[in-house]
């Protein structure tokens, strides 16, 4: 925990002085966006070393906690798609009706699974076996930090579902992790 706090503080010290620096290229807005992206990537990586947070932390920023599943094409594709998925999850969370209309855990078929989609399946009354089958049907891998697991468990998601999510397409997760570290 102390390491994570140190990383966050150090990131602030590194990025903060760059904001609006006249000798750097670009406008102040572009400099701020670049600094925010760097900070987001570092913070995303520090929040539990999750693959999704590491790859998309700079794009998602504080919204990185919403993203729990992805396929590698989406993860390394247009990163704006990930940002849109998180914004949609925040502003228009999935509902029980969305669960009824879908056969997978990717309720809106955007190529990502977000926390609101998992919670909607729980609210719809799906049992563990049904939720796991829908998660598997996405052909995505899942990447939960300890904090995300605790948050989801506190909102009623079964520990069994959370445990199983770690193994779904785990080979793909390892492949993405290797690619992200290059």
| Residue fraction in strands | under 5%
Instruction: Output mean pLDDT.
Output: 74
Q: End-to-end span in angstroms?
A: 26 Å
Q: In which range does the helix fraction lie?
A: 55-70%
Radius of gyration: 17 Å
Report the oligomer. single chain
Q: Please mark out the parts with pLDDT under 50 across 5 or more consecutive residues, or reply none.
A: 1-15, 29-48
**Domain count:** 2
Shape: globular
Query: Which structural class should the secondary elements be placed in?
Result: mainly alpha
Count of discrete alpha- or pi-helical segments spanning 4 or more residues: 11
Spatial strand order of the main sheet:
2-1-3
Describe the biggest sheet?
A: 3 strands, antiparallel
Task: Please count the beta strands (DSSP E, at least 2 residues each).
Answer: 3
* SSE order, one letter for each helix or strand: HHHEHHHEHHEHHH
Description:
The chain folds into 2 domains: 1-46; 62-180, no CATH class. It has a 3-stranded antiparallel sheet with strand order 2-1-3. 62% of the residues lie in helices and 5% in strands. The chain is mainly α. Helix 1 packs antiparallel against helix 2, helix 2 packs antiparallel against helix 3 (51-60) and helix 8 runs parallel beside helix 10 (159-165). It is built from 11 helices and 3 strands, in the order αααβαααβααβααα. The protein is globular.
How would you concisely characterize the structure shown here?
With about 180 residues, this protein is mainly α. The chain has helices at about 1-15, 30-45, 50-60, 70-75, 80-90, 95-100, 115-125, 130-135, 145-155, 160-165, 170-180, and strands at about 65-70, 110-115, 140.
């Amino acid at each position: 925990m102390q390491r994570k706090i140190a990383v966050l503080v150090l990131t602030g010290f590194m990025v903060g002085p760059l904001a609006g620096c006249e000798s750097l290229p670009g406008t102040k807005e572009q400099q701020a966006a670049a600094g925010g992206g760097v900070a987001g990537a570092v913070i995303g990586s520090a929040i539990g070393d999750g693959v999704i947070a590491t790859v998309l932390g700079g794009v998602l920023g504080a919204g990185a906690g919403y993203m729990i599943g992805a396929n590698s094409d989406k993860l390394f594709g247009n990163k704006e798609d990930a940002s849109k998925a998180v914004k949609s999850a925040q502003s228009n969370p999935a509902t029980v009706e969305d669960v009824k209309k879908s056969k997978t855990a990717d309720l809106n078929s955007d190529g990502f699974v977000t926390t609101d989609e998992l919670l909607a399946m729980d609210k719809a009354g799906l049992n563990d076996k049904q939720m796991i089958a829908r998660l598997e049907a996405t052909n995505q891998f899942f990447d939960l930090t300890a904090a995300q697991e605790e948050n989801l468990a506190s909102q009623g998601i079964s520990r069994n579902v959370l445990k199983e999510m770690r193994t779904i397409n785990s080979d793909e997760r390892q492949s993405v992790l290797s690619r992200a570290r290059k």
